[in-house]
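Aim 2 progress update. The chain analyzed this quarter is reproduced below.
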Amino acid sequence: MIRKAVHEDVLQAAQVLEEVKTHMLNERIDQWDEEYPNVKVLTEDTEKGDGFVYEEEGKVLAYMALNELCDEEYNDLNWKTPTPFIVIHRLYVKPAAQGKGISSKMIRYAEEFALQNQYQSIRFDAFSLNDTANIVYTKKGYELVGTVRFRKGIFNCYEKGVK
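Predicted structure tokens:
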């Protein structure tokens, strides 16, 4: 169900992304827009081998990117675990498929990926006004280590050691 994204997945993943953006705006979560993320970003993820999709019956229902890249704002935070670490980027689930445990499966996949590839921890940020995302991450054992400011506002930064 979860696998590396291939070029043929990008269009579907981008369509799901647009649904997610609309859904988030309807929920008054102004996290993403036409500037970021977009099909170009998803294409770059896929070309680098960083993109992953959750697929059922040939349909992409969720997407995330995993890599070692982080924004320079991360450098000012008091991370609890040493390097190397991996970062989850752009995790989203098709609105019609939300509430079915798909995001939990994606997070678990990222944790297994980190373990298999000998990373010490997983790090990421979540928009501070996206209550659903922040609740999911804390329930999964991710620890809030601080906040950073990006173009769209304040983002909570999380970390979990891999064991």
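The first helix runs from residue 10 to 26. The first strand starts at residue 2 and ends at 4. These observations will guide the mutagenesis experiments scheduled for the next reporting period.
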